[in-house]
Design brief:
The protein has 141 residues and is of the alpha+beta class. Helix content is 39%, strand content 20%. The protein contains 7 helices and 4 strands. A 4-stranded antiparallel β-sheet has the order 2-3-1-4, sandwiched between helices. The chain is globular.
Length: 141
């Protein structure tokens, strides 16, 4: 195993449902360390920049609009193989296809309003983390 960092976002739907604390409990129970956290209400420009990789896909505009509907809880998680383990804990993008016990199965309501985000690779994490967090905001290793 290797110690990694990943970006985790509790999306506006989950914040509005007041389940962010339950999601944080799941994160901590999984043994991940939260090395940075902040609440942010993304602007449309910020959402477009973050999801630029999806520009041109049919869901891009609605995803960006959704992510600006309310505040998100942004976190950087650290742990052994945290990227794959966080993605397993999140569950499938479509909550109807997510395994029992996953965050999306329990808290998401649709493919788009799916409660949480996580980096999908070390390369993505290396881009996503500094998009929202400066080096001064990250607890040292």
């Amino acid at each position: 195993m290797s110690v990694q960092r990943t970006l985790a976002i509790v999306k506006p739907d989950a914040v509005a449902k007041r389940v962010a604390g339950k999601i944080i409990t799941r994160i901590e129970d999984a043994g991940f360390t939260i090395v940075a956290a902040k609440l942010l209400h993304m602007s449309l420009a910020e959402a477009r920049g973050f999801y630029n990789v999806h520009r041109g896909r049919p869901f891009y505009q609605s995803l960006c609009a959704f992510m600006t509907e309310g505040p998100c809880l942004l976190m950087v998680l650290e742990g052994d193989d945290v990227i794959a383990r966080w993605r397993d804990l999140m569950g499938a993008t479509d909550p109807a296809k997510a395994a029992a016990g996953t965050i999306r199965r329990e808290f998401a309501s649709s493919i788009e309003a799916n409660a949480v985000h996580g980096s999908d690779s070390p390369e993505s994490a290396a881009v996503e983390i500094p998009y929202f967090f400066s080096s001064l905001e990250l607890c040292p290793r």
